[in-house]
Design a protein that fits this description.
This protein is an all-alpha fold. The protein is built from five helices and no strands. The longest helix has 35 residues.
Length: 124
Amino acid sequence: MNVYIKHRFLLLLPVLLGITFFTFVLMQLPADDTVDMMYKASGAVSETVKAAARAELGLDRPLLVRYLDWLLAVCSGDMGRSYISGTPVTALFVAKLQPTLYLTALALLLIPPAFLCRWVSRQR
């Protein structure tokens, strides 16, 4: 049993890496990148300003380099800053954590009565 659990945890690492990489690549697919979205509301902005913003945000680097930098930062606890508001993503995450945990606990409390009702109805 112990070997089975260790084996499953070892298989978890490539799955998590694959999911994070796939998600990271999907975030890069839209035709408008982050800089285009940032400057869309302000109207016509020169390409030199956009290029400087891309360099500042690191969007001019290759995809794999950006992914590895992001992965190392996340593993060290730094989720970066929001492109929209500029606030740390960790603060945004923590702000949404309490309602999420509340809803999860509520759902977990409702599951056993639902199964009990179903079991009782099948016994009749």
